[in-house]
Amino acid sequence: MSLLQQLAEKKVLVSDGAWGTMLQARGLTTRECPEEWNVTHPDEVRAVAAAYAAVGSDLVLTNTFGGSRVKLEKRGLGGRVAELNAAGARLSLEGAPGAIIAGSVGPTGEFVEPLGMLSESDMEAVFAEQIAAMLGAGLRVICIETMTALEEAACAIRAAKRLDRAIEVIATMTFDKTPGGYRTMMGIGPEQAASALVEAGADVVGSNCGHGVRNMVDIAREFRRFTDRPILIHSNAGMPELVDGRTEFRETPQDMAEQVPALLEAGADIIGGCCGTTPDHIAGIRAAVDAHR
Ligand SMILES: [Zn+2]
After folding, report:
1. Which of 128, 186, 274, 286 is positioned for an S-S bond with 209, CB 3.0–4.6 A?
2. Residue 183 pLDDT class (50, 70, 90 cuts)
3. Based on the number of CB atoms within 10 Å of its own CB, is 178 exposed (0-12), middle (13-18) or buried (19 or more)?
4. pLDDT at position 152
5. How far is the centre of ligand 1, averaged over its atoms, from the C-alpha of 236 (Å)?
6. Cα of 206 to ligand 1 centre, how many Å?
7. Residues 265-280, mean pLDDT to the nearest whole number
8. 26-74: pLDDT as tens digits
9. How many angstroms is it from 243 CA to the middle of ligand 1?
10. Closest CA to 269 of 58, 104, 49, 50
């Protein structure tokens, strides 16, 4: 069943939580490339997918967030885009066989001309290479996330849809709270994001990262004013705080679960977590979603 069919049937879907912080808890260091773990530590990566499936995630992502050629080149792994992304897709399919697997695609860190060095067609080709590897491994859903620039997000969405029009595309942006409202680092608000992401071809839009769950309620409400597409919200476990030189996220599973009714009333259709969230947070969200019916 496709993502949109499952949404139509179940009304609300629960997604997964963080990958980066989960892999760090399993030993990934900041010197290592997370995507290389798809080959060097497949059991650890598969276990993250399995842990989210075990607590009831309907949707599980892949360990491919930084898997674009532009990102991998900075780690000296530019020649391994196909290998590392296909491996990431396979590990989530194996770890969470009952879930819908969405291939994670994060920002390249570069900008489209004239702000940056890449032409639109170059940027689209970068994403097409990454996404094609995941489709080749059997994925039918792509999750383009943590975007701040509309041009880059649109290139990723178009890349997926041009490879296969039937691929379902989720596209989410990351906002900061500013005196003028919620804006991405590139100055984009939820209204502009909602219309531009849909225009580029996204089937599901929304927001991930940047905030704890309370601010995400506001962001979901703003998206809902400007689109009737399904909305996905992946909130962090609070704002990152530096404690003894380490980054910590302090929102508890209960804190997040308590906000689920507000998120649903604001218009969210798919709820999961971003940085700092764990299977315990997702279990809390799962229980709150089930209780809300
Ligand atoms: Zn995050």
Report:
1. 274
2. very high
3. exposed
4. 98
5. 5
6. 13
7. 97
8. 999 999 999 999 999 999 999 999 999 999 999 999 999 999 999 999 9
9. 18
10. 58
For ligand 1, the distance from its centroid to the CA atom of residue 107, given in whole angstroms, is 13
Q: Return d(Cα 210, Cα 223) in angstroms, integer.
A: 16
Cα 8 to ligand 1 centroid, rounded to whole Å: 27
Cα(142)–Cα(161) distance, integer angstroms: 10
Say which residue the tokens 């071809």 belong to: 201
The rounded Å distance from CA 235 to ligand 1 centre is: 7
Q: What is the pLDDT of residue 244?
A: 85
- What is the model's pLDDT at position 240? 84
For residue 285, the CA-to-ligand 1 centroid distance in Å is 17
- What is the tens place of the pLDDT at every residue in 129-147? 999 999 999 999 999 999 9
In angstroms, what is the span from residue 208 Cα to ligand 1's centroid? 6
**Domains assigned to the chain:** 3-292 (3.20.20.330)
The helix (run of H) or strand (run of E) holding residue 153 is: helix 150-163
Look up tokens 């990934």; give the residue: 28
